Automatic annotation (TrEMBL):
Organism of origin: Schizopora paradoxa
InterPro entries, per database record: LRR_dom_sf
Name the UniProt record assigns to this protein: Uncharacterized protein
SUPFAM superfamilies recorded: RNI-like
């Protein structure tokens, strides 16, 4: 839309006002006093309110944050009257550091008074609260959080970062009824050498938070199983600590309930721990908006994520990252995952594993992904079986015939191991079958039978001990014709994920 002169004048005025406010606030911090401009003093109250709302934007709204409102309320009488007359100006509170006495000890008196002041002056406005505390006196920090949770019916967004020893063990912090809450961001870390059971956790009842749009939790958090309806939820990141008491709570049953309650979800990252495997559903659950899915499987090999994915229809899914801790589990086989037929990018990572996979473990997964464009395979379980299965033979049963980029690495997550289970000849044959028909100049008799079209454009490998296959006759020719072939060391392998995914 083209701006007319009136729009341009208005935006110029707003920019001037914003600069004036910022210069006034800056002057308060440097000179200890404020000299107001006569033109600003003459503004009517409703215009001043709009100016204040534009002062310091937050992540979710354009309301001021932290000490801004307190500062402008002390500029002059008209500014103070305006600030006190509008509770929404006090509804956005961010305190991310603690006041200290001259001897370095924490003085909480004014700290707590400031919180209470903001809560009192915010009336019934929606609250945008951030608490990131280094306070060591846990009883006083708990007093702040008690005030926050007492107003949870007014919460709009809640961001908490703390340690487990700051949470009462006998009465966990609970978000049970926050019908207006749009965003939660919790980080609850273990308290140093304190035993796992010596601290509390944050408990969330998702059924009591029906307006949630984003969930981002890490550490010691617990979710009730009754999820309710979350039709506004777009993004969920559930990364509880593997060693926490809450780890068994984030299992495939909870995630299945979450997905059923959130039909408009666009991005999900979660850790899955052991639990009963989901039964096969007669009808796939349609998630028409989910584009990014990241599953980190704590235990159980492929069986836990398989029981979830086989029940989902994901027509818009672009990126799938599977991070699997095998822990000695036997080789698994994936079901037919009909909901992944449109997937474009797969990252499959194995950790804590020894030895190659069985002949059908990885191929059984790839059979469900005919549209795959990019493939990343990390882990020692990637083997000759995988290379042979990825070799195109033009028989109508080829895996992922549209692949354009492939990345293959041995176990880069454990640098003590320096082994892999892929022979150079199998790697060369796989690449030859997928590049062969890209160039009419290459003699097809030098490679395996291949389909009518090759789609491979680039490949990267990190296989310690393997000779540089780029010097072999077919690969050298392909590189001359335009194939991008990279061989890297373990130190560089971690960078490949962002490059190829």
């Amino acid at each position: 839309m083209e701006l007319n002169p009136e729009h341009i004048d208005i935006m110029a005025i707003v920019a001037t006002i914003q600069n004036t406010i910022r210069s006034l606030v800056l002057g308060a911090s440097t000179s200890g006093s404020l000299k107001t401009h006569s033109i600003v003093q003459s503004f009517p109250s409703d215009l001043l309110f709009e100016i204040f709302m534009w002062g310091l934007p937050t992540a979710l709204t354009s309301r001021p944050r932290g000490a801004f409102t307190l500062v402008v309320s002390q500029v002059c009488r008209s500014w103070r009257e305006t600030a006190l007359a509008h509770p929404s100006l006090w509804a956005s509170t961010s305190i991310t550091s603690s006041p200290h006495d001259s001897d370095g000890s924490v003085s909480m008196v004014n700290y707590i008074r400031l919180w209470k002041l903001y809560f009192e002056r915010s009336g019934e406005s929606f609250l945008d609260v951030e608490v990131d505390s280094n306070v060591k006196r846990c009883d006083e920090f708990r007093g702040i959080m008690d005030d926050v949770l007492a107003h949870q019916h007014r919460l709009w967004s809640l961001d908490i970062s703390c340690n487990t020893d700051q949470i009462p063990l006998d009465s966990d912090w609970a978000v049970l009824c926050a019908p207006r809450l749009k965003s939660i961001d919790f980080t609850v870390n273990p308290a140093g050498d304190v035993p796992d059971d010596a601290g509390g956790k944050i408990v969330v009842d998702l059924a009591g938070c029906p307006s949630l749009e984003t969930i981002d939790v890490f550490g010691w958090c617990y979710f009730y199983r009754e999820v309710g309806k979350l039709t506004s939820l777009r993004r969920a990141m559930l990364d509880v600590n593997e060693f926490s008491q809450a780890d068994k709570n984030i299992n495939v049953q909870l995630i299945s309930s979450l997905l059923q309650a959130a039909p408009n979800l666009e991005e999900l990252r979660t850790v899955l721990y052991e639990g009963a495997i989901l039964p096969q559903s007669p009808k796939l659950l349609l998630l028409a908006h989910l584009r990014d899915l990241d599953l980190s499987v704590g235990h159980g090999g492929v069986y836990v994520p398989d029981s979830l994915l086989r029940n989902l229809d994901l027509p818009m899914l672009d990126n799938l990252h599977l991070f699997i801790h095998v822990n000695g589990h036997p080789n698994g086989t994936w079901s037919e995952l009909n909901g992944l037929k449109n997937l474009r990018r797969l990252s499959l990572s194995y950790v804590l594993n020894v030895g190659p996979s069985g002949p059908d473990e990885i191929p059984s997964l790839l059979r469900s992904m005919p549209s795959l464009k990019r493939l990343i395979l990390f882990g020692e379980r990637v083997s000759n079986h995988t290379m042979q299965a990825l070799t195109l033979r033009g028989q109508g049963r080829d895996l992922c015939p549209l692949l354009e980029a492939i990345c293959i690495c041995s176990d880069v997550y454990d640098r003590r191991r320096n082994t892999h289970h892929i022979d150079a000849i199998n790697l060369v044959n796989m690449v030859s079958s997928r590049w062969l028909s890209n160039s009419a100049e290459y003699n097809s008799s030098t490679a395996l039978d291949s389909p009518a079209k090759g789609t491979l454009k680039r490949i990267a490998v990190c296989l310690p001990g393997m000779l540089d296959v780029r010097l072999s006759s077919p690969i050298k020719t392909f590189v001359e014709q335009g194939l991008k072939f990279k061989m890297v060391s373990g130190q560089q392998a971690q960078d490949l994920h962002s490059e190829y995914f």
